[in-house]
Amino acid sequence: MSKSLFDKVWDSHVVRKIEDGPDVFYIDRHLIHEVTSPVAFVGLKSRGLSVLYPERTFAVADHNTPTINQHLPVQDPLSANQLKTLENNANEYGISHWGLGHENNGIVHVVGPENGITLPGATIVCGDSHTSTHGAFGAIAFGIGTSEVEMVLTTQCIMQPKPKKMRININGTLNKGVTPKDVGLYIISQLTTSGATGYFVEYAGDVFENMSMEGRMTVCNLSIEMGARGGMIAPDEKTFEYIKGRAMTPKGADWDTAMEYWKTLKSDEDATFDKEVTYNAGDIEPMITYGTNPGMGMGISKNIPSAESVEGGKATYDKSLAYMGYSESEQMIGKKIDYVFIGSCTNGRIEDFRAFASIVKGRQKADNVTAWLVPGSHVVEAKIKEEGLLDIFEEAGFVLREPGCSACLAMNDDKVPAGKYAVSTSNRNFEGRQGPGSRTLLASPLVAAAAAVTGVVTDPRELL
Amino acid sequence: MAYDKFTTLTSTAVPLPIENVDTDQIIPARFLKATTRDGFGDNLFRDWRYNGDDSPKQDFVLNNPIYSGKILLGGKNFGSGSSREHAAWAVYDYGFRCVVSSFFADIFKNNCLNIGVLPVQISPEFLNEIFEAVYEDPKTELVIDLEAQTITLPSSGTQESFDINGYKKGNMLNGFDDIDYLQSMKGEIETFTESRPF
Predict the structure, then answer these.
(1) Under which EC number(s) is this enzyme classified (chain A) (predicted)?
(2) What pLDDT does A459 receive?
């Protein structure tokens, strides 16, 4: 029977099928962080259970770590306690731990691929919805709740009904100034934030084939924002090139065996999907969001859509625009902004900082803008320095911070004040996401850079 | 963590007719710094419920004493966003045992089922009818029967059935959780692990 990429990976990880119930689903690699794991360990302890395969779990501190002075003790006692709890739990159960100051530290979804934890055909989970990022490598990767973190720790399995399958095809060539982030935001604006709920997505077509691994990670990262549990892209030479030789990828004969398997990881010609949508690359322009969910996005040169044309009902639309301080049918170009954030598991990789640099080079940060440039990991930070991007940033009046999730969810001190506007390369523009009362405009690193040097929402194509 | 059994529930409901309620609204990230599961109900819908100075926002439904009950009525696509199970804990800890909506985000729904909160998905028409009935009379009760998989609005007699897989239903009726099941098949899991290439 013909199978999709998703079927091939899913079916090979089913330990047991339960009639009228979920599959007992095997997890190859498990990532944990300080926020969603502590209660799972409390659960283990209260039941007197152990961690079945500590070598399959990797602990990384990222959600509430500070992005300056990481060599000093963490000031916030609650954050410090969570970070210490992660370290203690990792030590007690023999789990590797990349804490603050460790050379491999960074955002869990950035360091996973960097270290070869992420492999094609693998199943990867983490108590974080943006685990979908790892699907860029042809893995099945998705976010889980803390009860499931406990299940994986103690049995390496979770109980999951198999999702339905959806394929999103985009063919053609992307226009100038259009990045993988714009592709993701465009898809969400078309599908809405619940358009892919219940599905697992496969991205297919030339746009994704031609995309770098970093770009593919950005797109797969955003799968959850259309409601999908995850998204994946068939592995190809680019994927194999990226993972080869990384710390935790198979070596020697094991590599050759793995490659034989990985080359089979694509949807069969006649594979069927429960839902299939196709978009044209040429229709996508640089995107920006105007509302309080990632589906409320639009081409940057357009006007804010009317209530009737937006899914979600008028009450929800009005509440959203009132929160943002915007009105129906206004244009976004020229809107004053206060903060710019580049970073997060969506856009905190080297390619994103290269894009940001391409616009700020030779220009100056606008006086009214506070900018936070936060690399996704120490590896990214080192590359920024190596490639001379740091010099470009500093000459333009920007400061580079240390890695972490930072202003994406504002669990540390990187909070946008109430009422202020932030152009952010992160993934969620929910009310208060970047700090109580903060207003978020999601966009690509190019749009963020254009805003950072002009102080207002600006079409990056004018500056390229 | 095992939880209370869920069989039938007859209760008034708290109406929140907003669509796309995300988990950052249910429990904002700054309240996720605990290392135990206690007390999240205090911060349920924190920023919709309280002003910056911690005074209650009078126009928010949880601050309106005429609405109470163990059932939360939400708009379409309830629980979107983050995978934080803290959102489900907050709903439970506040005192809700059931969330009724016309559509749920996937991870939130899963998390609810894992901790003993029943997500009940019904048609948009029935959801509207319930909202209207509750606004008309806040003492309106709903009856949820998990064994029969039905939700009834006795004041009008309207009833709908809802979906839940047999396995999860059994867990909720008996107060079991998945770890009990998974622990019982450890040998099978160990054998499976030996066949994994990486």
Answers:
(1) 4.2.1.33
(2) 98
> What are the Cα distances from residue B78, in Å, to B88, B104, B108?
11, 5, 8
Number of residues assigned to chain A: 464
Facing residue for B35 by CB, picked from A81, A194, A312: A81
Q: What is the C-alpha separation between A159 and A198, in angstroms, rounded?
A: 15
What are B5-39's pLDDT values in tens digits? Answer: 999 999 999 999 999 999 999 999 999 999 999 99
DSSP 8-state class, residue A371? E
Class of domain A289-462: alpha beta
Q: Which CATH class is domain A164-235+266-283?
A: alpha beta
**Cβ(A398)–Cβ(A409) below 8 Å:** no
pLDDT of A310 above 90:
no
Q: Which amino acid appears at position B46 of this protein?
A: R
Q: Residues A144-168: what's their mean pLDDT? A: 98
3-state DSSP assignment of residue B102: coil
For β-strands A297-299 and A287-289, DSSP reports them as antiparallel
d(CA A70, CA A10): 40
Burial A208-244 (b: 16+ CB within 10 A, else e): beebebbbbbbbbbbbbbbbbbbbbbbbbeebbebbe
Distance CA B27, CA B24 (A): 5
Same fold, A164-235+266-283 and A289-462: no
ipTM, 2 dp? 0.96
At the topology level, CATH places domain A5-161 in: Aconitase; domain 3 (3.30.499)
Residue B1 has pLDDT above 60, yes or no: no
Q: What is the pLDDT of residues A377-428, one digit of tens each?
A: 999 999 999 999 999 999 999 999 999 999 999 999 999 999 999 999 999 9
Q: Are B192 and A15 a contacting pair at CB < 8 A?
A: yes
CB B107 within 8 A of CB A129: yes
- pLDDT at site A309: 87
Domain boundaries, chain A: 5-161, 164-235+266-283, 289-462
- Nearest residue to A339 (alpha-carbon basis) of A423, A256, A402: A423
Give B111's contacts in chain A (Cβ within 8 Å): 145, 147
Chain B nearest-CA distance from A15, in A, is 7
A35-74 tens-digit pLDDT: 999 999 999 999 999 999 999 999 999 999 999 999 999 9
B8-194 architecture in CATH?
A: Alpha-Beta Barrel (3.20)
* A177's tokens: 């100034």
Task: State the best of A52, A84, A87, A146 to mutate against chain B, taking most chain B CBs within 10 Å.
Answer: A146
Q: Distance between CA B40 and CA B86 in Å, rounded?
A: 7
